[in-house]
Amino acid sequence: MVPRLPDILILPIVRAALAEDLGRAGDVTAAACIPERARMRAVFAARKPGVLAGIDCVRLSLLEMDPGASIDLRMADGDAFEAGAVLAEVEAGARAFLSAERTALNLLGRLCGVATLTRAYVEAVEGTGARIADTRKTTPGLRALEKHAVRCGGGVNHRFGLDDAILIKDNHIAVCGGVEAAVRAARAHVGHLMKIEVEVDGLDQLDIALALVAAGGGPDVIMLDNFDPAMLTEAVRRTRAGGHPVVLEASGGVNLSTVRRVAETGVDVISVGALTHSAPVLDIGLDAV
Fold first, then answer.
1. pTM > 0.85
2. pLDDT in tens, 15-44
3. Which of 24, 30, 139, 148 shows the smallest number of beta carbons within 10 Å?
């Protein structure tokens, strides 16, 4: 079961989205057409199969517009569903309901799309031991929700931002003057709880990183950037043969047609930017009942 995100993390996003939609004068259509005391009951129903994520965005969107709304969440984040499944049933003031509708559906469809695509990747590597991870290629302002959706789909999170782990990439290495110099500088700078990952773009750089690991001052994780399957296999062989206690992460250009082959090389983690930057929105409807 995926732990729920605290409301305090979701509310600012929901409020910003509602404010963007309501604009300067509020919902002029609802105000013009809908009687002030009218009530409305409706269901959020899936039009395609998928994996649920973001159901609390529905709850909070409606409660922000009508604190007295009655909301029955039929499923929890992480649940799989078929087309036609009812995800939630709601009764609220009609004006409030119609004003919150688009925000609720936008967030729910987006997050279900991320969770559903993640589940497809996770199922594609089942049995290999490799884990599917996201990246920082997220929609600005939605990172916490999109990374939650990845967890709902069975994936794991990479770092959340620039402050929670050190990731030494090719440009850092170029400025520092090499893999060894960059890793040594990072290791000297951080405390015992901060993880260090270094990106390598060839087996020569991998060997330098592994030598640092063997000496006790190396990275915790090595990212194998844009390695083909043969190179990944050799990288895993060299790492395991030396007994090096380091996590190997494959990254770069991975898609659903290639991820199984990448996983079968023996890497520990496969990071996939597409989970968040290319997930299609899942089609979910709001139907009055």
1. yes
2. 999 999 999 999 999 999 999 999 999 999
3. 24
The Cα 110–Cα 53 span in angstroms is 9
**197 a catalytic residue:** no
**Is 238 labeled as catalytic in the residue annotation?**
no
CA distance 287 to 42: 5
Query: CATH no. for residue 41?
Result: 3.90.1170.20
Task: Tell me, yes or no, if 169 is annotated catalytic.
Answer: yes
**Structural domain harbouring 235:** 165-272
- Beta carbons of 245 and 212 less than 8 angstroms apart: no
Active site residue 137: yes
Whole-number Å distance between alpha carbons of 267 and 131: 9
Could you tell me if 284 and 247 lie in one domain?
no
- Among residues 66, 134, 225, 268, the one annotated as catalytic is 225
Helix (H) or strand (E) holding 179: helix 179-189
pLDDT digits (tens, 9 = 90+) for 149-191: 999 999 999 999 999 999 999 999 999 999 999 999 999 999 9
Q: CA-to-CA distance for 54 and 4, rounded, in angstroms?
A: 9
